[in-house]
Every structure is written in structure tokens, then in C-alpha cells.
Amino acid sequence: MYTEEQIEQLCGNKYLKYLKNKNQGGKNNQKGSDYETNFAVYKLALLSRGVIERNELIKFHAQVFAFVDDLIIEFTNSNTWEHYQLKNSKSVTWGDGYKSIADDFAMQHKLNTHHGNKKSKLHLVVNSQTVCDNLNQEIPIHIKSCSIVIYFSPELNLAKLIEKESAFCNAVEYLSAFENPEPDKIECVVTVLLGAWRSHDKSGVSVMDILQRSQKLIPSYIRSFSQEWRLDPDVENILSNIDNFSYNLNKGFLHWNYANELDKGTLPYSIDTEQFQRFQELIKKSEPTSFEQLEVFLI
């Protein structure tokens, strides 16, 4: 993201040494930081709608060579960079001078302005609403125009975190293959997002890459990313002629119902996937004429 030469030229050798030590410490501590991981998954979920519906190109960076480095979100189309520094502590202050949070924010804003003329939005994330309110009132004047403090719950259990954060819950429901997903389906979506984030290289990974990796897991129950869905016409014809059987393609998933909900279910993969195409080929090849014949392909 930034080279050592750029840091030294703009900030001096003292800051270069400080940043190298800071970055190495961040990498060493990254494995155990559930607070940072949960926040990244939270932001991934919130930004997914714009990526899916408006083709926004958004990239995530974590623990990169920067002063405000826990998470950096790059909005490519607008050349805007949102930096996040997370403090899962009840005692947080802006401080003053070298190695303080305030100085880190000032140096980050300086870097972003001088290299690529990036629009900077710098966020300090804390685990207490009271601390958040106090720090917002105390933002040093020299970084006030580019800095904000936000609250994020310290709840480490993702299922409970979703219950507390309505925006998170709404974003996950949007990503779900179901209109009104049950708690287990919501948890499934969050679990695969978490797994995809943890396993992916974090040096500029796009939100869409994370979503696509998540969607490949079975079951993921993450909605299709296409805007239009339609079955193969031959498959439509076969399914429509099976007595007491109905279905719909909601969010790209095949939801089916037999005999007024005597039996019902959802295929665990979306219409975008190779598995779904194989399912359609099997239906066309077998040409089932009853639910009993069809049922084996719905498992």
C-alpha cells in the first residue's frame, strides 16, 4: 500500500522505524483478535448490497503498512479510503505527540493526501458507547475534519452480535437465500462469511471475492449475485407437471413444496453454481413424473 521509501520521505526515519515495529506487532496479534474479525465480517455484510446490486468495487485490507491499519476499506470508484483502528478496551485516549492515536491519525491523513490524493475517512472503533461519546467530543482540532469515533459491540458471539446490531441483522437477511430466514439460516450465512474472511489473503481482497468464496461452501445459503433467475425451460416443464408439487426461485435458490407442505425444502446451492447445473441436467435426463421419482434429486 505504502512503501518504506514513501514513509521515510514524507514522515522521516523515526516514523518509518515506528511503523515497522507497529506493523509487525499487529501481524503477531492478528490471530487472536476476534473483535477485529467480527468487525470486518460486519462491514462485509453491510457493504454487500452495493456490490451485488450496483457493481461497486470495494476492497478490504487488514494489517497493512499504514498508521491506521486494523482495517482499510478501499472504495475504488470514488478513490475513498476508510481506515479503522479498533480498541477493545475501556480505557482509550487520543493522546498527544509521537506514538499517540491522534498522531497516527494525523500521519495517516498526511500519507493519504500526498499519495494518490485519496479521500480519507479515519475511524477509531471502541467497545463502549460512553467512551465513544467522550472521544468524539475530544477529537484534536488538527484531525477533526477527517476523524470520527464509532461504537462497535464487544460481543464476540456472532449470533448474539447479530441480535444486538439491527443493521448487521438486516444485511445478513439480505444475503440469505430466504425471505424471512430462521436463526440457524442467519448463523449459517455469518459462519461462511467468517470462514471466507479468515482463510483469504487480506491485502486488497474485494468484497465480491469474499462473497463468491462463501457461496461455494455447501451449504452456504447465500443468495445468488445475479439479478435475474430462470430454470432451464425443459426443467420448468418437468417440475410443473408433477402433481401436488410447487416451487419458486427466490434469491436464486430453488425452494420447493409438496402436498401443501407435507414435505418441503431448499436446494443447498444457488442457480449460479455448477451443482445447480448438474441438478438440471439430471432432471432432464431422468424426466421424473412423480414426487417420489423427483425426491431423490432434491436431497
Q: Strand order within the widest sheet?
A: 5-4-3-2-1-6
Amount of helix = 40-55%
Structural class: alpha+beta
Through-space gap between termini: 47 Å
Shape: elongated
Kindly estimate the percentage of residues that lie in beta strands according to DSSP: 15-25%
Which oligomeric state applies?
single chain
According to DSSP, the number of beta strands is: 9
Rg: 24 Å
Main beta sheet:
6 strands, mixed
Count of alpha/pi helices: 12
Rounded average pLDDT:
90
Runs in which pLDDT lies below 50 for 5 or more consecutive residues are none
SSE sequence, one letter per element: HHHEEEHEHEHHHEHHEEEHH
Task: Summarize this structure as a short list of keywords or feature phrases.
single chain; 299 residues; alpha+beta; 6-stranded mixed beta sheet; 3-stranded antiparallel beta sheet; 12 helices; 9 strands; elongated
Task: Write a brief caption for the model.
The chain is α+β, with helices and mostly antiparallel strands and 299 residues long. The protein has 12 helices and 9 strands. The chain starts with a helix and ends with a helix.
Describe the structure.
The protein is α+β, with helices and mostly antiparallel strands and 299 residues long. It is 47% helix and 17% strand. The chain has helices at 4-11, 13-29, 34-54, 101-114, 129-137, 158-164, 166-175, 183-199, 207-215, 233-240, 274-286, 291-298; strands at residues 58-61, 71-75, 80-87, 119-126, 147-151, 203-206, 245-250, 253-258, 263-266. Strands 5-4-3-2-1-6 form a six-stranded mixed beta sheet, sandwiched between helices. The two termini are 47 Å apart. The model has no long low-confidence stretch (mean pLDDT 90).
